[in-house]
Design goal:
Elements lengths: L1 E5 L2 E5 L16 E5 L5 E7 L4 E4 L2 E2 L3 H14 L4 E7 L9 H16 L6 H11 L3 H4 L4 E4 L7 E4 L7 E6 L9 H11 L3 H20 L3 H20 L10 H15 L4 E4 L6 E5 L4 H9 L6 E6 L5 E3 L9
Parallel strand pairs: 5-7
Antiparallel strand pairs: 1-4, 1-14, 2-3, 3-8, 4-7, 5-6, 8-9, 10-12, 10-13, 11-12
The structure holds (3R)-3-hydroxy-3-methyl-5-(phosphonooxy)pentanoic acid (PMV).
(3R)-3-hydroxy-3-methyl-5-(phosphonooxy)pentanoic acid (PMV) binds next to helix 2 and helix 5.
Amino acid sequence: MTRALAHPNIALVKYWGKQNKTGNMPATPNLSITLSELTAVTTINDSDRFRFQLNGQQVNDPKVSALIATMTDTFSLPPLQIDSTNNFPTSAGLASSAAGFAALVTGIDAHCHLGMDAALRSEWARRGSASAARSICGGFVALVPPDWQAQSLAPTNHWPLEVVVAVTSHDAKAVSSSEGMERSRLTSPFYNQWLRSAGDDYAEAALAIATRDFEKLATVAELSCLKMHSLMLTSSPTLSYWTPASVACMDRIRELRNHGEAVFFTVDAGPQIKAVCLPESRVTVAKALSEVPGVLEILSCSLGEGARIIDDEEPLTGR
Ligand code: PMV
């Protein structure tokens, strides 16, 4: 039996749209922070046939089955029983698939003695879900050409950012990220402009992280997020992952920043708002967002480490 743990990551420069090639590669460079506290734990056991359980339920997940089929062919894997458990809402814009695939590949690599390095695990995780490539690494993480294997930009202790998550719905999303981004690629009139500006946004954010320039990071991260949601809104049929409370939280975060708090928002393909802040602003931000009508729950995270093997004693919420 082998157990692997991975955390979700939150993109500060987003990708939305893939290259028209095999390998599940994003169309644009992107970067993220890996969170602690939220975890996907995957247990791998030998079995008589392939089985996959998510949060205790036997499920048939086509992406998991496809990845396992390709890995089985490539590495002559034996049949495996895979059990994955998240300690946070699944498929609701909290990057559960990123954490899940990173833990899955890390667990299979160790259980089957495949001897992969982090770059290769990142490549295999990317085949499951492109954002999962980034959860292999901790801290500040880049996913860029030509290899599209995630690389560490800086470790967790480079800059102790905190993330306050305002959960505004527990429902699984109606349109998956893969389907949504393909719809935007094919139909949004802004898609080509998005491709053209992503490199500059990436460079600006990487520099802001290297120099710990919070204002610069806040500006470019909110812009990247809103450009991505503009692609969604201008897709045909339109896509909107927000609830009224998501919009209210973004307004509240702008007000907080105008009043001197070091905080900005980012939102993925879901209704949850992630408020990225400096440690001194965390309590104020968490309290303010908890008071926004429609906010169901507040989660607080700091930066976490990359995917790893854990033993039975290790606490599942550890960094
Ligand atoms: O790779 P996926 O299918 O998990 O899609 C991720 C898309 C976003 O989270 C919205 C953006 C990103 O860069 O993570």
